Amino acid sequence: MTAQAPSIVLGCIADDFTGATDLANNLVRAGMRVVQTIGVPQAPLAADVDAVVVALKSRTIPPAEAVAQSLDALRWLQAQGARQIYFKYCSTFDSTPAGNIGPVTEALMDALQCDFTIATPAFPDNKRTVFKGYLFVGDVLLDESGMQNHPLTPMTDANLVRVLQAQTRRKVGLIDHVAVAQGAEAVGARIAQLRSEGVAIAIVDAVSNDDLLRLGPALAAMPLVTAGSGVAIGLPANFGIAPSSTASALPAAGGLRAVVSGSCSLATNRQVADFVAAGRPALALDPLQLAAGGDAVGQALAWAAPLLPEGPVLIYSTAEPSAVKSVQGRLGVEEAGAMVERALAAIARGLVERGVRQLVVAGGETSGACVQALGIAQLQIGGQIDPGVPWCHAASAAAGGAGLHIALKSGNFGSDDFFSKAFGALR
Ligand SMILES: Nc1ncnc2c1ncn2[C@@H]1O[C@H](COP(=O)(O)OP(=O)(O)OP(=O)(O)O)[C@@H](O)[C@H]1O
Ligand SMILES: O=C(O)[C@@H](O)C(=O)CO
């Protein structure tokens, strides 16, 4: 008798690395056993899990490339038996009028011969709510939340029907809170009405987890769901899966502890300040010094070596917006970003080579660079530290193939004491 290859029920495509762990975290909390792959795997899935999240870096690349990578991921997920596909984007709907949410959604709909899907970035646990089609971040509209100044994807309109309509030829409509509050049957009736009006993609209102749990059953037969990570909490039940503590079990943690931070988001700035104020060892990298040459990576590793046995150390380039702007003005936005990412990735690798086995990385781009430098191909998802951020476990080439615990924190996620409390959560 030949052993049956593992088969998944839910196949997910995420447009960045930290967003992928955010989605995986919500699926695990709802009971699914999940792995996250870095890019599209070359080989069939070996792990016996319910869902796979394929992490791409497709949020801000040209639309045609984002479409090609997403279709590649779709083909691999289908080959692993996925019965439903989930396209995950940012809870602040990060995109430009050219894409990539619209073009990727259209391409996936075409490939799946799917004539209707939903789109909602709602993630109430992290204060992203959608009401009458408008996205709120905390108490303010998206375009007043700071996202209007984002360097790559400035979000200047909080009306998601308008935002998505600018990115797609398909007609966009709204399933408003009146329908969602009444439950799956009312959502189904609203979908039927929208379909009869020629709508193919519906933004969905959701202001609480109860809304998302009510929405879940209405999505059971949809071949494609597109959303932030919030919608994930209502999907596992459609496959008969209930929350269970075993889904998030990871191997026991050991080894030295460190944090590497390249995020300059407001939350990360507060987290760095909190770690420093607590008197913990922290080293700031100066991008202008990096640009001037010299061995800043070697110096940072030499600084960390004697401190690591005492507890977690932090190495960061995190800075206030004015300092970042000034560096970008001197070095160029792309060049500054790439140079800092390279340095932090080399530092992360050096730390792991020196015995760090519990590592927190802050920032989406920074996480991408670090995960690649660490030679990580796949992450097993464990317990949540804060909404959207789980501990993960992965084999790393930098650790000689051994496993390490790693947490990839989105810039704006996590409480102020995140860098200290994360390690407590592993014990
Ligand atoms: N002091 C600095 N000056 C200029 N650029 C910096 C500085 N520190 C970090 N950077 C760059 O800023 C970018 C930060 O992006 P990253 O995605 O890592 O964080 P984020 O935007 O806060 O996170 P997320 O994408 O999860 O919201 C990276 O390219 C990083 O290299
Ligand atoms: O949805 C979010 O806000 C995050 O998972 C993310 O994608 C940050 O880049």
From TrEMBL:
UniProt keyword list: ATP-binding, Carbohydrate metabolism, Kinase, Nucleotide-binding, Transferase
EC numbers, comma separated: 2.7.1.217
InterPro entries to which the protein is assigned, alphabetical: 4-carb_acid_sugar_kinase_N, 4-carb_acid_sugar_kinase_N_sf, NBD_C, NBD_C_sf, OtnK
A molecular function (GO) term: kinase activity
Keyword ATP-binding included in the entry's annotation: yes
SUPFAM superfamilies listed in its UniProt record: YgbK-like (SSF142764)
Catalytic activity, as annotated: 3-dehydro-D-erythronate + ATP = 3-dehydro-4-O-phospho-D-erythronate + ADP + H(+); 3-dehydro-L-erythronate + ATP = 3-dehydro-4-O-phospho-L-erythronate + ADP + H(+)
Start and end residues of each Four-carbon acid sugar kinase N-terminal domain: 10-233
Family in the record: Belongs to the four-carbon acid sugar kinase family.
UniProt protein name: 3-oxo-tetronate kinase
Lineage, opening ranks: Bacteria, Pseudomonadati, Pseudomonadota, Betaproteobacteria, Burkholderiales
